[in-house]
Specification:
Blueprint: H1 9-26, H2 29-39, H3 56-66, E1 91-94, E2 104-107, H4 110-115, H5 117-133, E3 137-140, H6 150-156, E4 162-166, H7 189-211, H8 225-237, H9 244-250, H10 255-266, H11 285-298, E5 300-304, H12 310-315, E6 324-329, E7 341-346, H13 392-418, H14 420-423, H15 426-430
Parallel strand pairs: 1-4, 2-3
Antiparallel strand pairs: 2-4, 5-7, 6-7
């Protein structure tokens, strides 16, 4: 609702963890590929948009998977299905980590946990592994699963083991969630960085363990703390922070998008995570730059050179439909004029953040299965009229005071009238 008035710190807190995990996993790409081929297990990192509006992003993903059409591209050209619901062996979600106070919690769906022995076994194994990496994390198995994207998946197939990691336990602790006060200035940045890094490194180890048939691997990669600090400052403190990272990433965008992306950063600094209608919501910092960073972290450099252009990289997309290629400059150089250029090809893809209700021809809008929200925004400069009513005691005081003054006035009028022959005598008139 407050699309131009807040930074969406609560949503950014989990986004940064996924980006940190991507950065670490990208440094171990060859081992991941070998383990994946050997054990026939894969990793799928997903970022959802529109979750506050009845899980638009996650429900869209599930719907596409059920129709063997994930991911469906915005252009209408459907690529080969990369995954279906039957391919999902485990779901792990990172939720809001703001105001965690160094306490982390694992939430599950207690019904499926008790219903399926295989679900209980996999969840218990994962909980044990996470506790080995982070002893402070707590497991909650007797409470219902809190609001989470996992609901979209479990609603269709509750036999999928699923865990949500959050910074709150039995009750929600972020009183600023999705409000105009959901801003970095209310967030303890150093404390958040420490918590997020611990979670990210734990998830990196857990991801490699999953690929290795639930056996820990030696020397897992760790998150680059310098990179994480830069990303945190860029996503949470822009434009107060001189974010060179975003400016350099903008060079990877098509020419038609480049100026729009910079405009989104400079003219609407409060718009970070809102998913809305209209062209102004297509290029949002959280969406564009998170995708560009995941490309950079998880992709493979296939060509480099100072004279390399965006057009050269774009033409590579025709060679392999399962990957996309983008143009990048070397990041973090003070003098970008001497930076080398790269074509990075990555399997990173995106799909529509649109409710399936609008793509189903005979959808029953009374069913409530999919989100049918409309967009309602608050004006950036709202006006307010306040009507004040006095308390009963004050009203009684004013009433009695008025009566008192009335009788005092009558008394003075009576005195003046009775003494008028003295006050207005003939001698005074003669004078």
């Amino acid at each position: 609702m407050f699309d131009d008035m807040d930074y969406g710190s609560s949503a950014i807190s989990s986004l940064l963890v996924i980006l940190a995990v991507s950065e670490a996993l990208g440094k171990d790409a060859h081992r991941i590929a070998d383990l994946s081929a050997k054990n026939e297990r894969q990793l799928l990192l997903a970022l959802f948009a529109g979750e506050s509006f009845d899980y638009i992003g996650s429900s869209r993903m599930v719907w596409e998977m059920m129709h063997n059409n994930f991911p469906a591209m915005d252009s209408g050209i459907h690529s080969e299905a990369l995954a279906t619901l039957s391919n999902l062996g485990f779901l792990l979600e990172v939720g809001d980590l703001t105001y965690s106070n160094d306490s982390l919690y694992m939430h599950i769906d207690p019904r499926s946990y008790q219903k399926y022995g295989s679900v209980k076994e996999k969840i218990d194994m994962t909980v044990k592994a996470l506790r080995e990496h982070s002893s402070s994390i707590q497991f909650i198995s007797d409470k219902p699963l809190p609001p989470s994207s996992l609901h979209s998946f479990l609603k269709e197939d509750d036999s999928i083991p699923a865990i949500a990691i959050t910074g709150y336990g039995s009750s929600f602790t972020n009183r600023f969630y999705n409000s105009f006060l959901d801003q970095p200035r209310f967030l303890n940045i150093p404390e958040y960085k420490k918590t997020a890094l611990d979670v990210a490194n734990s998830l990196v180890k857990l991801s490699l363990r999953w690929l290795n048939n639930d056996v820990d691997v030696l020397d897992p990669p760790v998150v680059n703390q310098t990179m994480f600090d830069i990303m945190t400052d860029c996503f949470l403190q822009w434009p107060n922070f001189n974010c060179t990272l975003f400016l350099q990433l903008s060079e990877s965008l098509p020419p038609s998008w480049h100026d729009m992306a910079l405009k989104a950063l400079t003219t609407v600094p409060g718009r970070r995570t809102f998913t809305g209608l209209g062209p102004e919501y297509v290029i949002l910092p959280s969406r564009v730059y998170s995708e560009l960073l995941m490309f950079y972290f998880l992709g493979e450099r296939v060509e480099s050179g100072a004279n390399l252009t965006y057009k050269t990289c774009f033409e590579m997309n025709n060679t392999n439909p399962l990957q996309n290629c983008l143009f990048y400059r070397e990041l973090f150089l003070h003098d970008t004029s001497d930076a080398n250029n790269y074509c990075i090809c990555s399997p990173v893809k995106h799909s529509l953040a649109r409710s399936p209700a609008f793509d189903i021809a005979d959808y029953n809008y009374k069913s409530g299965k999919y989100s049918t929200w409309v967009m309602s925004l608050v004006n950036n400069e709202p006006t307010m009229r306040i009507y004040l009513v006095n308390s009963p005691a004050w009203q009684l005081t004013v009433f009695l005071t008025g009566i008192g003054l009335f009788f005092v006035s009558l008394f003075f009028i009576h005195v003046i009238t009775k003494s008028s022959h003295l006050l207005f005598s003939d001698s005074l008139v003669a004078v």
